[in-house]
UniProtKB/TrEMBL annotation:
The lineage of its organism: Bacteria, Bacillati, Actinomycetota, Actinomycetes, Streptosporangiales. Keywords: ATP-binding, Nucleotide-binding, Transport. The keyword ATP-binding applies. Residues 7-238 form the ABC transporter domain. One of its GO terms (molecular function) is ATP hydrolysis activity. It comes from Acrocarpospora pleiomorpha. This is ABC transporter ATP-binding protein. The keyword Nucleotide-binding applies. It comes from the Bacteria. PROSITE patterns: ABC_TRANSPORTER_1, ABC_TRANSPORTER_2. CDD domains: ABC_NrtD_SsuB_transporters.
Length: 258
């Protein structure tokens, strides 16, 4: 894996101002994500993690600092980047294949080749037989897999994922962790992944960034030196537990972070 940076943030700050108050969400936030890396962000709710993803994606602009993606300053939403949200956000009147193809429809690029690729993605995630079914016919975990396929269909260099498995039950979440690890290893995408789950962050990541209390900034950058591919058994090793404890202590709230 090469480590040339695809995402670079330098002293990024974000302050919202209204007539009544000033709300600083991020202050002096600096980080990098290397090409092909899986990097997770953990921290308390309200620490600016989602705001950070929105800034990187170009949806909003920081009030301070600079953001570069693939060496270019970000001043608009980028075509080589996709985002997976906390909920699948699928259109219920469209079948699953049509939902996957939606980004390409917006770009006027739905071809037979693209339809075939969308089917390959559904097959890769175990959903080939559901292509003509609708989202309401699928479980929550299956819907989130459709959302991941939709994020991959445009061949993005970078995927931003904002707590995509937070609403799932524990067993489904574990399965999705294994599925995402496999997808990442097969596609080689760079992934920046926000989660409140420390075990999930350790399991999936090459590096874990700890965001401090509001206003958010990176207070620790921890390299996870565990073998890949990781299995459920890795969660019960002393090495895995040590990473969990280290991150819990940095966050300072062992009981409030699931």
């Amino acid at each position: 894996m090469t480590t040339s940076p695809v995402i670079e943030l330098d002293a990024v700050g974000m302050t919202y101002r209204s007539r009544k108050e000033t709300n600083t969400v991020l202050d002096g936030c600096t980080l990098t994500v290397g090409r092909g890396e899986f990097v997770s962000i953990v921290g308390h709710s309200g620490g600016g993690k989602t705001t950070l993803l929105r800034i990187i994606s170009g949806l909003i602009h920081p009030t301070e600092g600079s953001v570069r993606v693939n060496g270019q300053h970000v001043d608009q939403s980028l075509s080589d980047m996709s985002m997976v949200f906390q909920k699948p956000v699928l259109l219920p009147w469209r079948d699953n294949l049509q939902n996957v193809l939606l980004p390409m429809e917006f770009r006027g690029r739905v071809t037979d080749t693209m339809r075939a690729y969308a089917m390959e993605l559904l097959e890769m995630t175990g959903l080939k037989d559901t292509a003509r079914r609708h989202p309401y016919e699928l479980s929550g975990g299956m819907q989130q897999r459709v959302a991941i396929c939709r994020a991959l269909v445009s061949h993005p260099d970078i995927m931003l994922m904002d707590e995509p498995f937070g609403a799932l039950d524990a067993m489904t979440r574990d399965s999705m962790n294994l599925e995402l690890q496999r997808i990442w290893s097969e596609t080689g995408r760079s992934i920046l992944f926000v989660t409140h789950s420390i075990p999930e962050a350790v399991f999936l990541s090459d590096r874990v960034l700890v965001i401090g209390d509001k206003p958010g900034r990176v207070v620790a950058d921890i390299t996870v030196d565990l073998p890949r591919p990781r299995t459920k058994a890795h969660r019960y090793t002393p090495e895995f537990y040590e990473y969990e404890q280290q991150i819990s202590e940095l966050i300072g709230a062992k009981e409030s972070i699931a």
